[in-house]
Amino acid sequence: MSAPFVIISILTLAAALAAATLRKLMHAALSFAVAFVGLAAFFFLLGAEFVGLVQIFVYIGAVAVLIVFTILLTRRDVEKDRGFNWSSVVVASAVFGGLIWAIFKTQSVSVAAPEMPVLTVKHIGEVLMTGYVWPLLCVGLLLTAALIGALVLVMEEKQ
Amino acid sequence: MHLCGKPRVGAFDTRASGSRQAAANYRPAACAPQKWNGAMTPTLQIFLIVSAALFCIGLLAALSRRHAIFILIGIEMMLAAANLNFIAFWRFSPGPHQPTGVMVAIFSIAISAAEAAVGLALVIAVYRHYRTTNVDQFDQLKG
């Protein structure tokens, strides 16, 4: 196995585990951001540079900042989260065991990557504007609806 | 687990350049000796294992935390694991010159960003009512 893959996977999984288990909210939010940097590095490793950049812009630039702002706005009960309940640990490890069993059982997933031409942003843009134009419009509509919905939700209520 | 421990890079480089076309057409079911960015290639299996681990960590966060923001973080992690699966399956598919998996991943990122925005707005709106973000205390609808 290649060294970058090992380093990135250890970084990503450790940061994700920290985000899931750290007791202070702000520390967990920052390690969530680190986990998503590692995920973007995975996308770079897989040859999908554009998706990696989009991941960094959207998750680190927008979602992590939103989470930090929400933590700061709801700071009044910043009391520590209580620890695990063991039933959730059991459920998560059972799901993990099932997934691992299915992955090892499937022979056709142990393939190496085929040769691939470099995926340029120009090609992605062309495909986005021809074959995927209706999904693109739907996503635009969805984002507008989400923006308006989020604004309506946090608007001051009339007394 | 079948992970091809043999030295692959050297074996591939010693081939004559005339047989390059034959080497490109030859695609065994597993353990193809191929060079990729100068490093040995991890197989699809490893990416799926990492993605499954990330999904289960997200599931653990969503199930064990009592803080609404962290349940959202867990859901985001599960969605990100699904994105990693999309990209990995696209990269290891027989025809990666068609960017189908990339498109699905981009749309999925956009949708999960919208979900995060609405979810955090809900957290703030609920916090105004209850003055807490602990989901155990949102019990007004409980029968």
What does it look like?
The complex is a heterodimer of chains A (159) and B (143). By secondary structure, chain A is mainly α. Chain A folds into 2 domains: 1-81, NADH-ubiquinone/plastoquinone oxidoreductase chain 6, subunit NuoJ (Four Helix Bundle (Hemerythrin (Met), subunit A), Up-down Bundle), CATH 1.20.120; 117-159. Chain A has helices at 3-21, 25-45, 49-73, 86-105, 121-130, 133-154. With 143 residues, chain B is mainly α. In chain B, helix 3 packs antiparallel against helix 4 (68-91). The model of chain B is unreliable at 1-39 (pLDDT under 50). At the A-B interface, helix 1, helix 2, helix 3, helix 4 and helix 5 of A face strand 2, helix 3, helix 4 and helix 5 of B.
Please sum up the structure shown.
By secondary structure, chain A is an all-alpha fold.
Draw up the topology in text.
The complex is a heterodimer of chains A (159) and B (143).
Chain A lengths: L2 H19 L3 H21 L3 H25 L12 H20 L15 H10 L2 H22 L5
Helix pairs in contact in A: 1-2, 2-3
Chain B lengths: L7 H6 L6 H6 L9 E2 L2 E2 L3 H21 L3 H24 L8 H31 L13
Helix pairs in contact in B: 3-4, 4-5
Low-pLDDT segments, ≥5 res of chain B: 1-39
Instruction: Report the order of strands and helices of chain A.
Output: HHHHHH
Radius of gyration of chain A: 20 Å
The CATH superfamily of the largest domain in chain A is known as: NADH-ubiquinone/plastoquinone oxidoreductase chain 6, subunit NuoJ
- Strand content of chain B is under 5%
Q: How many structural domains does the protein architecture of chain A include?
A: 2
User: Can you give the helix content of chain A as a percent range?
Assistant: over 70%
Number of structural units classed as domains of chain B: 2
Unreliable stretches of chain A (pLDDT < 50, length at least 5) are none
Overall pLDDT metric of chain B: 75
Sketch the major β-sheet of chain A. none
Task: Please give the most extensive interface between any two protein chains, plus how many residues each contributes.
Answer: A-B, 86 and 87 residues
Broad shape of chain A: globular
